[in-house]
Amino acid sequence: SYDSDDSTWQGLTEHTSPFDAVVLVLEGSLTVTIGGYQSSQTRDDRGHAGHMPHALEAPEPCRILRDLAVP
């Protein structure tokens, strides 16, 4: 999991993964950009991206769980 209170985590700049990626917001909120479209995610929301450019930004302190579905 990632915690934005941890100064080592600044979010994730836009990148593309060869696998399906799933992000679950555990606390706080997160701005998820997938394929150029932004959405705000809050507790218990999930974002899915795979083979598309995507990025994460935390507008406030948050905790997330990020998982890659590697075949």
List the helices and strands and how they pair.
Blueprint lengths: L1 E2 L8 E4 L4 E8 L1 E6 L2 E6 L3 E5 L3 E4 L5 E7 L2
Antiparallel strand pairs: 1-8, 2-7, 3-6, 3-8, 4-5, 4-7
* Unreliable segments of 5+ consecutive residues: none
What string, H for helix and E for strand, traces the elements in order? EEEEEEEE
| Helix content estimate | under 10%
The termini sit apart by 21 Å
- Percent of sequence in beta strands: over 45%
Q: On the 0-100 scale, what is the average pLDDT?
A: 80
Number of strands: 8
Please tell me about this protein's structure.
This protein has strands at 2-3, 12-15, 20-27, 29-34, 37-42, 46-50, 54-57, 63-69. A hairpin with a 2-residue loop joins strand 4 (29-34) and strand 5. It starts with a strand and ends with a strand. The strands form 2 sheets. It has a 4-stranded antiparallel sheet with strand order 1-8-3-6, with no helix packed on it. Strands 2-7-4-5 form a 4-stranded antiparallel sheet, with no helix packed on it. It has 71 residues and is mainly β.
